[in-house]
Amino acid sequence: MKHKNGVFRSFIGQSWQIDTTATQIVYKNNEKTGKIEYVDLVGITIKQGLVSDTIVVRYGKNHLFISNFSAADALRLRDDVVNSAKKSIASTINKYPKQILELSSHIDQFLAEQRYLAQSDIRGWLGTVPEIGALLSHPFFEVNYLEKRFRDSLRLLQDIKSPNSTTLKNRNDTFVQQAIQNFSNIFNRLEKHPLTIEQKRAAVIDEDRNLLIAAAGSGKSSTIVAKAAYLVESKLATPEEILILAYNKDAQLEIEERITQAFGKLGGKKGTPLTKTFHSIGLDIVAANTGKKPKISKLASARGKTANAIFSDLIKCISSRDTIFYTNWAQYITIAKHPLPEHESIKTKEDYERFLIQIGAKKTGPIGRQSMTLTTIDNNEVKSLQELRIYNWLTIMGVDFKYERPYELDTADILHSQYQPDFFYPEANLYHEHFALDANGSPPAFMTGYFEGVTWKRNLHEKRSTKLFETHSADFNSGLIFEKLEKELRQAGVSFKPLGKEKLDELVQNSFDIEHDTKLFVTFLRHFKSNGFSIDELKKKFEAAGDKFRANLFLSVFEHIYLEYQQRLFDKGEIDFEDQVNLASQFLEEQAVVHSWKYVLVDEFQDISRDRYRLIQALLLHDDHMKLFAVGDDWQSIYRFAGADIDIMTNFGTHFGTTAQSNLTNTFRSYQGLIDVAGSFVQKNPNQLRKKVEAVKKDVGAKQVIIKEYSDESDQTQQVFALLEEIEK
Fold first, then answer.
1. CB-based burial of residue 637 (10 Å sphere; 0-12 exposed, 13-18 middle, 19+ buried)?
2. What is the DSSP code (8-state) at residue 429?
3. How would you classify the pairing of strands 659-664 and 209-214?
4. Per residue in 406-426, pLDDT tens?
5. Measured distance CA(508)–CA(517) in Å, rounded
6. SS3 at position 716
7. Gap between the Cα atoms of 516 and 308, Å rounded
8. Is 404 helix (H, G, I), strand (E, B) or coil?
9. What is the DSSP letter of 343?
10. What are phi and psi of 575, to 5 degrees?
11. How far does Cα 629 stand from its chain's mean position?
């Protein structure tokens, strides 16, 4: 069947012609032509757009994006490709009646094998019949498209190759129960306490991808030890074929010690699985590929004063040879270091004041009439962050101005105090008001009566014939604030006398918070590298930034810092922690390094980051039968600041494929009262996985969570000390 996206859609975008033949998709657009065999198809989806839809065809490791189709035409094309692929796959299978009958006669025998049957096991079994095995494993194999004489004999196969197969689930559940009984002696003596039934099940279940969601204090480490022991004792793997990955060195050493103790109880000299952190295994893989262990950069491992000194030297070196960088760095530090508040997070005046306090504002004035003020680079005070940015920019640019100088005419009356415009430029006798108005000319909702004040000021200037120009909050969001400001001032005849480098250096140095600012850029650098971004990708992401002025300055500064940092690594022949993982992933993906592990067990999976995720995928890439056992608790995910991406756990199956999920819901750590309060609180976040945690310990018969209110800071302190004294008794 032939498909086209129409003359009109071709005019506004690419022109497409698609032909679904008996064996392949033939496509043609403005730039290229090509063919995709149905046997190479992995999947086909529709990506909906505002005006047009895009059909995404996945084949092999590639994607074809067929764009500019109407919703109806996209659906019609998708369905045609799926049906054509199913017909083509079935047509080829129909040519091998002998193999079909032979395979169908052995399905019951295969299902009776004494092992857990994972999807890879089914694919492996089908692979024993090379003529049709790969086709029967194909995602577009559909038994109803076969000749009628073959359908009934392969209907059971169609069922069990589905991850949602009830037949396969019941069969595997029976095996798991039997295996738990067979290995109960080992499970009961491995650790200090016998394993719970949940722990035993998790140890025995052996799908290709396994996710164990373990509540705090539920014995996840014991389950990892039991899983490794079960794999060895059941002869699914030797100790050398098991890799255990821990989040950090302390966790690695703890698991290593417990593995050694447990395996000592198994009898015989079996050895122990390799336990590593992600960084250490990455370093081993890099060393295996290059023939030598690389040196780790000092900045990668530096902390505190050492990191601050290295970063300061890096800034100094770039500034000495690049005036554009120095200008942007100076503006970032003195003008745009603090982000503007996110609109959706500021609902009330109290929210706004809390935000200002976080960035260093203080309350001034008599009680009852206090206002928030921020300190400028020349130690004066202003009333908002946006005014602070404007004030500091004017200072750096050497503009003669006055902040909140009283208006030249008397305006005080029964309703108004004396008017004090935000900025006044004596050279041009020009007033400047910066209004908190968005692109629609509206103020924040919590600023009641604000727009009436804006109108009064506008009318006053018009009535008294004084010159006024305005800037708005929207100008910061667009990133054009200072272009607009400079244009207005120059047109009015205001002079610019930018500060000399010596004076600017002094202001930059006074504004540079070495610990905070160093930490921000170093942390961002690590996130940037661990996520595998490029500068171009970062620029695209920054296009959606709300505070574009700050975003553009930060991006410009960061790009120079990143390039200088990378050059220093190259010149010294060093790598950092992110390189350890990224390079290892690259070498594995390119198959420059091979390994012999059959299982990878990952602890604290809720803390997984994108680079670690990539490394796991690269390890799994080497063998279709290699299996993953991941253990974690999304409720304990606290390392987002260090690059953790909780989506990798909460959408585990999307990232890794067919998954068996187990749960440890019994905790030995807390009483039920505390668990219920904590669980209720955590699950207010709709992105957290739903679960019910049960305490093994009996309740103490008293409240475990007590909430007390206090009137002020002094009262709070007194109550805390009273509680401490009570506890001490």
1. buried
2. T
3. parallel
4. 999 998 888 778 899 999 999
5. 12
6. helix
7. 10
8. coil
9. G
10. -135, 170
11. 21
φ/ψ region of 91 (left if φ > 0, alpha if ψ in -120 to 50, else beta) reads alpha
Match 């657009």 to its residue by tokens: 29
pTM for the whole thing? 0.79
DSSP assignment of 447-480, as one string? -TTHHHHHHHHHHHHHHHT-EEEEEEHHHHHHT-
Residue type, 144: N
pLDDT of 624 reads 85
Indicate left, alpha or beta for 441 from its phi (over 0: left) and psi (-120 to 50: alpha).
left
In this structure, what token pair is assigned to residue 323?
């005036």
Confidence of residue 229 (pLDDT cuts 50, 70, 90): very high
The owner of tokens 């200037």 is 461
Q: Which residue has the tokens 């086909």?
A: 44
Rounded to an integer, the average pLDDT of 399-403 is 96
Read off the tokens for 699: 């309740």
CA atoms within 13 A on the CB side of 6: 12
For 47, the enclosing helix (H) or strand (E) is strand 41-47
SS3 551: helix
- 596-605 as b/e: b if 16+ CB within 10 A: ebbbbbbbbb
- Residue of 540, 426, 556 lying closest to 492 (CA atoms): 426
Distance CA 160, CA 205 (A): 17
CA distances in angstroms from 235 to 250, 556, 629, listed in the order given: 30, 56, 17
- Count of residues for the chain? 729
Closest Cα to residue 111, out of 144, 178, 160, 176?
Answer: 160
Do the Cβ atoms of 411 and 457 come closer than 8 Å?
A: no
Q: Is residue 153 classed exposed, middle or buried when 0-12, 13-18 and 19+ CB atoms within 10 A define those classes?
A: middle
* Distance in angstroms (rounded) separating the CA atoms of residues 453 and 442: 12
Write phi, then psi, for 337 (nearest 5 degrees). -65, -40
pLDDT digits (tens, 9 = 90+) for 545-584: 888 899 999 999 999 999 999 999 988 888 988 999 999 9
Per-residue pLDDT of 712-725, as tens digits, reads 888 999 999 999 99
Q: Which of 357, 340, 372, 344 is nearest to 436 (CA)?
A: 340
Whether the Cβ atoms of residue 508 and residue 330 lie closer than 8 Å to each other: yes
Q: How far is the C-alpha of 122 from the C-alpha of 682, rounded, in Å?
A: 39
Q: Which of 163, 199, 262 is nearest to 629 (CA)?
A: 199
Q: How many CB atoms lie within 10 A of CB 358?
A: 10
**Single-letter amino acid code for the residue at 58:** R
